[in-house]
Design brief:
Layout (H helix, E strand, L loop, with lengths): L14 H11 L4 E5 L2 E4 H17 L7 E5 L4 H12 L3 E4 L6 H11 L3 E5 L2 H7 L9 E5 L7 H11 L11 E3 H4 L16 E7 L7 E6 H14 L9 E4 L6 H13 L3 E4 L5 H11 L8 H14 L8 E4 L6 H11 L2 E7 L6 E4 L13 E2 L4 E5 L14 E6 L11 H7 E2 L2 E10 L5 E6 L4 E3 L2 E3 L1 H9 L4 E11 L3 E10 L7 H11 L8 E4 L13 H19 L1
Parallel strand pairs: 1-11, 3-4, 3-5, 4-8, 5-6, 6-7, 10-11, 12-13, 24-25
Antiparallel strand pairs: 1-2, 8-9, 13-14, 14-15, 16-17, 17-19, 18-19, 19-20, 21-22, 23-24
Helix pairs in contact: 1-2, 1-9, 2-3, 8-9, 11-12
Bound molecules: adenosine monophosphate (AMP).
Length: about 550
């Protein structure tokens, strides 16, 4: 705070400063817990320096793009900061991508170096590209970051299958950090590119949002302003969300490190491992998506787990149903705060106040230095008044500088210094943002607009429904009609007719899905959102197969 009580202006810096400041301040405090093995900030800082020098030896210079294809492990944090310190740009990869997606993203980003775990499934998709675009792959042994006994057991059971670096271009992590000389200083400025964050995972063609050092550091400043009071160096941050996704990269990693928190990293979603980790480490901050809070609540209720250490929770990425929020709050005693963001905005745009003045159903107020406007869907130059639904436009220092190598796509979304988010919503008279849905997911049926989220929320009110997703499917007469996919609660039953008749009382006639399909599970994205895009692709394939048969 400044002397007059007004918050100090946010200053752009380098993403590497975030870690360096905490290393200087808290060298002996724990930085990372990985399944019981811990590293202090001092140790993390030294590993980052050595890896940065190692990347420089491999040719990383200002602007080089380096792919990180890692589940959450200490390597994710070490290598992200090391690439930045070497002057490079981090390109985040989802290790579960299929081979063609991996190849396409490597080529699009122009990565010449990729960092991977020594898991055969991961290496198989990437090492064949050595000499065909890639110069080096850095292979990180999982056993080496596990606690001693777990590491030995892992090496005994899985050791033979793990990939050992051999052949040209394959570099062991130990070799990367083998030198002792400090990294060469690189002239990086806040306006330089720090991260290529691929997006469009749930809709549209994947493209990379260009996030600069300034975007990231100013976003961290914005989150620090929002945070409830906390003692630096004392929080424990649960890192269940994948760090290759923008939400966790910013909120878990950079923000956690800026607070001097201990990052509790989990390599994959396994409810047993998660609940054991919560019991062992007693996290205080749990950023998540709604499906994570539901999973924790279900498990905690079943085994009467103690969640009382949890204090600060930020839900984002997908709408947070009121019942999910209320149940998690009952079990923890904390306030589960909903926010909204997207890859193109580093990602956070709006968050509810961290205290009781949150508005139910709202994703909150724009964060510091951020302006939100609602523009007419029919005439985008028109700004709509409070209460009217339109497209959400955002201005703020966290907004990307554009899409990598896609000036045409950039021109569509960056207009007059604002980001067109593609989300539909409205502001209320107090400036709180309420989201309706994505423009791209809107269904037009006989000329009427149907927002899938509206229909999904009505489905959630049915007592037998556990998960639901609604998409538009082609219809000869009405153009499109809504179709619902439903997963029922364990032990519950319902028929298609019952669900439709229930919805008939909740929705307009044209909003009621034409068909309801029951599934044992709904497809999820890496971060835990229901993947409407996968359902739409299945429907399209089914439609093509049927018209093929008819022809
Ligand atoms: P991504 O770029 O993968 O992080 O996806 C961003 C998208 O997630 C946004 O454009 C929204 O459509 C959606 N989203 C994020 N937060 C929320 C929220 N709290 N409620 C509803 N949708 C959200």
């Amino acid at each position: 705070m400044m002397a007059d009580g007004a918050p100090a202006p946010l200053a752009a810096g380098l993403a590497t400063d975030i870690l360096e400041r905490t290393v200087r301040r808290f060298p002996n405090r724990p930085a990372i817990d990985f399944l019981g093995r811990r590293w202090t900030y001092g140790e993390l800082g030294r590993l980052v320096d050595r890896a940065a020098r190692g990347f420089q030896r491999l040719g990383v210079a200002k602007g080089s793009r380096v792919g990180l294809c890692l589940p959450n492990t200490p390597y994710s944090v070490i290598c992200a900061y090391a690439v930045l310190k070497a002057g490079g740009t981090v390109v985040n990869f989802n290790p579960l991508y299929a081979e063609p997606e991996m190849r396409a993203q490597i080529a699009d980003a122009g990565c010449r170096i990729m960092v991977l775990l020594d898991l055969p499934d991961h290496c198989r998709k990437v090492t064949p590209l050595l000499g065909r675009g890639l110069d080096h792959v850095v292979i990180c042994p999982l056993a080496r970051v596990l606690p001693r006994l777990k590491g030995l057991a892992y090496a005994l059971i899985k050791g033979r299958a793990s990939v050992r670096p051999r052949g040209p271009g394959q570099v062991a992590f130990a070799e990367l950090i083998g030198g002792t000389e400090p990294p060469r200083p690189v002239a990086v400025a806040p306006a330089d590119l720090a991260v290529l964050q691929y997006t469009g995972g749930t809709t549209g063609i994947p493209k990379a949002a260009m996030l600069t050092h300034a975007n990231i550091t100013l976003q961290i400043g914005q989150l620090m302003r929002w945070m409830p009071p906390t003692e630096p160096g004392t929080e424990r941050m649960l890192g269940q969300l994948p760090l290759f996704h923008v939400f966790a990269m910013t909120v878990v990693m950079h923000h956690g490190i800026a607070m001097g928190a201990e990052l509790i990293l989990l390599p994959r979603f396994d409810i047993e491992m998660l609940m054991r980790t919560i019991a062992r480490t007693r996290p205080t901050c749990v950023p998540g998506v709604p499906t994570l809070y539901t999973a924790i609540s279900n498990a905690a209720e079943a085994r009467k787990a103690d969640l009382s250490s949890i204090r600060i929770c930020l839900s984002g990425g997908a709408p947070l149903p009121a019942e999910v929020k209320a149940r998690f709050e009952r079990l923890t005693g904390c306030t589960l705060v909903e926010g909204y963001g997207l890859s193109e905005a580093s990602p956070v745009v709006a968050i509810n106040p961290p205290n009781s003045s949150a508005k139910p159903g709202s994703v909150g107020l724009p964060i510091a230095d951020t302006a939100v406007e609602i523009h007419s869907l029919d005439d985008p130059s028109r700004v709509l008044p409070a209460g009217e639904d339109g497209e959400v436009w955002v201005r703020g220092p966290q907004v990307m500088s554009g899409y990598w190598n896609r000036p045409d796509e950039t021109a569509k979304v960056l207009v007059d210094g604002m980001l067109r988010t593609g989300d539909v919503g409205h502001l209320d008279a107090d400036g709180f943002l309420f989201l309706v849905d994505r423009v791209k997911d809107m269904i037009i049926t006989s000329g009427f607009k149907v927002y899938p989220r509206n229909v999904e929320e009505a489905l959630f009110r049915h007592p037998a429904v556990a998960e639901a997703a609604v998409i538009g499917v082609a219809d000869e007469y009405r153009g499109q009609v809504p179709k619902a996919f439903v997963k029922l609660r364990p032990g519950a039953s319902a028929t298609e007719e019952e669900i439709k008749s229930f919805l008939g009382h909740e929705l307009a006639r044209y909003e009621v899905p034409e068909r309801v399909e029951f599934r044992d599970a709904l497809p999820m994205t890496a971060v835990g959102k229901v993947a409407r895009k996968d359902l739409a692709a299945e429907e399209a394939a089914r439609g093509r197969a049927q018209s093929g048969k008819a022809a």
